[in-house]
Design goal:
Elements (H helix, E strand, L loop, with lengths): L5 E5 L4 H12 L3 E6 L2 H10 L5 E3 L5 H8 L4 E4 L8 H11 L2 E4 L4 H10 L9 E3 L4 H14 L7 E8 L6 H9 L5 E4 L2 E4 L6 E4 L6 E6 L4 H8 L5 E6 H8 L18 E10 L2 E10 L5 H13 L7 E2 L2 H4 L2 H7 L6 E6 L1
Parallel strand pairs: 1-2, 1-4, 2-3, 4-5, 5-6, 6-15, 7-12
Antiparallel strand pairs: 7-13, 8-9, 10-11, 11-12, 13-14, 14-16
């Protein structure tokens, strides 16, 4: 029997997966703990008595089907997503349940859009990159775009006061080495990132040196917003942190497990002489992913979504209202027009 309050979390024991499990429980949803490592899953289950553990492997469809049985949705938190996403999507489609993931990987997200573009199985929703990288920038750009049917350019810039990467982040980076996808002249292709520049971020960052560095938002935004140019940037200090092999992983500073890291994501949309801007500020890029993806899954389970099949965050939901629902507990939000 399926319950619309049960959600399988694949990769539940990962750094971000643990935040997702906690957020589901806070909202009265029931997570099934799933993943490849039985020992780690059982250790996690000891901290959440009563939750079911289901070991599953992406190369074993029977185990995936068992992991998703009885659930209404699956949240894939197991990276590198280039190795897991397609298989878990296929399992979700077999089970006729909704799929969301937290991928920042461009190749994995693009593969989902291309591979499952024609699938409309029984109203199933497939939302990749419903996370800090990908989803948040997409929602901000969609909010800034507002009622404009087209824009001349969309710029997304991220500032972090430091980036202490998880082991999963490092593994994903190695698995996705090589040129990134850029969107220029209305075409998505691997190529040179936009040149370095300065960016005047909202407080507390101010003027920062940034480099062109795009994540999944380039894929998702280009799938549904009409513009010839999408440029993405990350502040140089954060880039230097993550590229330094000696930078330690994140350190929890409260009982929730969050770090002290502060971020701002800034989206600017231009059309002619007009400019619209939407930015969000918050804490801990890994922890903030949990309320983003769980808010999304809750809306999907309640039927509050705009399209089935593979959709981006800003296409699946009313972007401004979605972001507002995360304030002030999780995000500070500001929207401006010039």
């Amino acid at each position: 029997m399926r319950s619309n309050r049960i959600v399988t979390v694949f990769g539940a024991y990962g750094h971000t997966g643990r935040f997702v499990v906690s957020e589901l429980l806070k909202r009265g949803l029931v997570p099934i703990l799933s993943g490849r490592n039985s020992a780690t899953l059982n250790a996690l289950a000891e901290t959440h008595p009563g939750l079911e553990v289901r070991v599953a492997f992406v190369d074993d469809p029977v185990s995936l089907d068992r992991a998703l049985s009885g659930a209404a949705a699956v949240i894939n938190c197991a990276g590198p997503f280039i190795d897991t996403a397609a298989e878990v999507v296929e399992a979700a489609l077999r089970a006729r349940i909704h799929y969301l993931d937290i991928a920042a990987e461009q190749a994995a997200v693009l593969d989902i859009f291309e591979r499952f573009a024609e699938r409309r199985d029984a109203g199933v929703v497939i939302i990749p990159a419903m996370a800090f990288y990908g989803g948040l920038g997409d929602l901000l750009a969609t909010t800034a775009m507002g009622d404009w049917p087209t824009a001349d350019a969309i710029d997304i810039a991220v500032a972090l006061d430091g980036w202490k990467p998880t082991s999963g982040t490092r593994l994903t980076g190695k698995r996705n080495a090589g040129p990134r996808f850029v969107f220029s002249n209305r075409k998505l292709k691997r190529g040179e990132s936009p040149p370095a520049r300065t960016w005047n971020f909202p407080p507390p960052f101010g003027m920062q040196n940034v480099v062109g560095l795009s994540f999944a938002e380039t894929i998702t935004i280009s799938s549904h917003l009409r513009t010839p140019e999408i440029r993405a940037y990350l502040n140089l200090a954060a880039v230097n942190d993550v590229r330094d092999p000696n930078t330690p992983g994140p350190t929890a500073v409260d009982e929730s497990g969050r770090s002290a890291q502060i971020f701002v994501v800034d989206a600017i949309v231009r059309s002619g002489s007009e400019e619209r801007r939407a930015w969000a500020r918050g804490r801990d890029i890994y922890a903030i992913t949990a309320p983003i993806v769980v808010e999304a899954v809750e809306r999907v389970l309640d039927g509050r979504f705009n399209a089935t099949g593979v959709v981006a965050a800003g296409e699946a939901f009313v972007a401004r209202e979605f972001l507002t629902s995360l304030t002030p507990k999780h995000l500070s939000l500001e929207i401006k027009e010039h």
